[in-house]
Design brief:
By secondary structure, the chain is mainly alpha-helical. It has helices spanning 9-24, 40-48, 69-82, 99-111, 132-154, and strands spanning 28-33, 57-62, 87-90. The protein is built from 5 helices and 3 strands, in the order αβαβαβαα.
């Protein structure tokens, strides 16, 4: 489900969940396509994010590996003019260009929160998982890691 209007009841419920998640989020990442620039749909979605506030909104200009330097610069300028955000970073999910910087930018606001103690000591018990499928996958991964540790300890 995305940020769009729909007549389909199931999809509408998904859109409402997505909007609720955006409102509750500490940081909202708005991903734009560098090969297209800021589209009318992007502007419509940006308008729906007006209550998020620029301090919580970050933009990733994706597919920079497919755009030339002029297109990337134009995309960043369009994004900054159209969408009030804390930061706009060029990235490529395909080549992983800029993802380290994006990760740091996404984590940085949490560091300024009162009481932030870092990520050390975060364990399985402190994670909130809202999907049974995700919980099962995490438990399976944990069990596989434990088995791998056990196996390597035997060698």
């Amino acid at each position: 489900a995305g940020q769009r209007e729909t007549e389909d009841m199931v999809e509408r419920m998904g859109v409402e969940r997505a909007q609720g998640a955006v409102e509750a989020a500490d940081v909202v990442l708005f991903v734009l396509d560098a090969t297209e620039g800021v589209t009318e749909e992007d502007r419509r979605i940006a308008a729906s994010l007006v209550n998020v506030g620029a301090d919580r909104l970050q933009i990733a200009l994706n597919k920079c590996d497919l755009a030339d330097a002029v297109g990337i610069e134009r995309g960043i300028e369009q994004a900054k003019e159209s969408i009030p955000a804390r930061i706009c970073l060029p990235v490529s999910a395909q080549t992983r260009f800029g993802l380290d910087r994006l990760e740091s930018a996404l984590i940085e606001p949490a560091h300024s929160e009162p009481g932030f103690a870092g990520t050390e000591g975060i364990g399985f018990e402190t994670v909130v998982v809202s999907s049974a499928r995700h919980r099962d996958a995490l438990e399976s991964a944990r069990n596989n890691l434990r088995e791998a540790e056990r196996t390597t300890a035997l060698r």
